[in-house]
Amino acid sequence: MAEDGNFYCWKVHPMAASPYKTGLVFLVLASCGILAYDFTASYFMSFIAVSLLTGSLIQFFAPTYYRIDREKVEIKILFKTRTEPLSKYKKFFADNNGIFLSSEPDSKVLDQFRGLFLLAGPGDREKISSLLKGVFEK
What we know:
Blueprint: E1 7-12, H1 14-17, H2 19-40, H3 43-56, H4 58-61, E2 64-69, E3 72-77, E4 80-85, E5 91-94, E6 98-102, H5 111-114, E7 116-119, H6 122-136
Antiparallel strand pairs: 1-2, 2-3, 3-4, 5-6, 6-7
C-alpha cells in the first residue's frame, strides 16, 4: 500500500480475506457442477456452467489493485486495467465495504448503476476519503 500526498494504492483480495466465504463459494461451484451434470448428463455442459460462474466471480477470486490520485482512478484485475477520470464523478460516500463514487450530484434511486464502487478496508477507506475530500471540495 503506497501512500503519497497526491496518490494512494491498495490491494483487495476477498478470497484470501475470508476463508468462510471462500468455502461457501467453492460449495456453490461444486453444487452448480453437480446440478448441471444431473440436468444435462454431460461433463462438457457441467464444465461450461462452472466456468461461467467462476468467470462471473473473478473479482472474488483474483486480487484487485487500485490506484487513486487527484485526476483518475485505476482498477487493475488480472490482465485488464480500467481507468476512470475523477472529473466524471460529483460526490463520494464511504461505506462499510469501501468508497462509492457517484456521477450524480443529488442522490437518486438509480445511483448505484451510475457510479463506481471501490472496495477498501477500514484503514484504506479513511485515507481514500481524505484524498477525495480534497478533490471534491474544489
